[in-house]
## 1
Amino acid sequence: MTQAQLSARISAIAESSTTQLMGLVQQLKAEGKQIISFNAGEPDFNAPEPILQATVKALQAGKTKYGAVPGEPSLREAIAKKVREENGIVAEAANVLIANGSKQILYMIFQALCNPGDEIIVLKPYWVTFPEGIKLAGGVPVFVDTIDHQPDVDAIAAAITRRTKAILVNTPNNPTGAVYSREALMAIGQLAVEKEIHVISDEAYEGLVYDEARHISMASLSPEIADWVITTQTFSKSYCMTGFRVGYLVAAAPVVKAINGMHSHLTGNVCTFAQYGALAALEMDPAIMQQMQQTFQRRLDLAYPLCTELFDCVRPAGAFYLFPDVSRWIGERFADDDALAAHLLKEAHVAVVPGSAFGAPNHLRLSFSTDDASIEKGFAQIKQALS
Ligand code: GLU
């Protein structure tokens, strides 16, 4: 079969370059190639034992049927308590909706907010899925540059038009690892209140912050700001549950109700027994995840100096990504960051994501979600491939 009558909407979408590269790396590894995965967009640890046990128990207890569309009531309650206590967000179970990872949550938020031609402000560099999700909803992503990976509030204000529906904020940030300051978040929040537009606050990496940084949830800043915020979080990164596909949004009840209608047609409930694994994640000893955070801090301390030996790089304060500026390697030897990344895969056997995928040419995204030995070996191999 070779024919297809595809819609303009779907033809305008590019496949996710991060998932595409993950597929390629998995394939190369299956062929026996020794690839170091600096492309990894997920923790390299398995989900902790209490999560696995609770999931198996739920399976055995028959939690295998359709469940409530917005999520298992006990998990919605537990998430509301978690965001109240850990994030300072005023929420009840009715403010929570559980879906298949942040990806589906964001898709539904864009669908819920955008009429054709409506604009959503996206800070650059951005996660690959943001613009495509907005376009799928008939919206227009309006890109605004950051300064040293921090929001440029004046530029955001200048980008707001009559068509603006929301400002999309992602902290800790993928791909830069930046953690936004309280002042910057407050200024964006006040702008949203003044202009009566939403803030979509993607906090997928909230569990991973380093050095003196603290994650601040936009919806915790003031009740006026909270009214306009739709927060998205996920179990994927904070609890090493990427494959479980459990993410959630926290928003005003009418937003939850509207999105729930779409969710009921799109997928219905998230995998029922996976939600019991998520419930166990919230109930288990927090020391388990604190240990993982300490490991990531150590890896950052190891990887950052190795990275700056080769490239200019702002030190990240969250997530598990380094986002160096590789301009000095672009020109004669490599046409662009895609060519550089391809060279590193072929010659250094290190997989990295080109910055262009995130709207930031002349950069690379390097994940330090791998063991110490692989971090050292990976940078040594990159150094050799560039010598
Ligand atoms: N979010 C991760 C990344 O940026 C996982 C892959 C994806 O869904 O994009 O690599």
## 2
Amino acid sequence: MQICRSISDCRATLATFRANGARIGMVPTMGYLHEGHLSLVDIARAQADRVIVSIFVNPSQFGEAADLDAYPRNETRDLALLKAAGVDVVFMPDVATMYPEGDETIVETTRLANMLHGEVRPGHFRGVSTVVTRLFNIAQPDVAVFGEKDYQQLQVIKRMVSDLHIPVDIIGGPTVREPDGLAMSSRNVRLSKDDRADASVLSRALNAAQAEALAGATVESLQKLISDMIADVPSARLTGLDIVAAETLNPLTGPLTGPTAIMISAAFGDVLLIDQKVVSP
Ligand code: PAF
């Protein structure tokens, strides 16, 4: 496994693969890897001949410096996991490499980035699309894989790639869950023991909503079902519940008529968790 810290090194390594006709798959990450990331690597490996994983904790997508500082990091463990997963290249740039002196260019999906989670975290999706565009320009992958758990992020990236004619196929990887249903996330380690146990309410609420959707629910009845279930868990503070059209993320009302994304965010102590499910009537 080749570890590249500079853009020139990364490009040179990938050029040798491409010269042999290899299709390149990419999994962008912020490190502190878990089973969820490794499942994205597996998908990339199935879709491509060579796999590159980037590890870069992207400052421009964090609102507060404290959140950025608190983001967990473990380079040694990440590299061991990626090696065991059969990854070919790891790209680990520093901030000055990704955001060179005098940097001023941003990429923004103007509608998708500023609704839903983007309203509570201003600038977050702009930071994501800016860094992902830069990563794509560096690695020029044929295919890239992102988790469906960050559902709005996945829609932002699909829109951006389509609007900017970036020649990469975007694939969404299904959410990987702990045995009690909690979606895997690098943030889970920051939960207290009690909050960790309570946090499974998010996936329980989504499963209940899915069952209701099949039984002819309305957007309003799903909203009530989910908020009631979360209100029953005192440690959980519901910070966002959006029931929207799966692709456009436009708000819906009344009976479900097609694929519908349910996006939940909830705080446990100072840890903000998100989860989502696409349901159909
Ligand atoms: O999902 C993530 O880990 C990040 O938002 C991403 C896509 C790697 C961009 O920094």
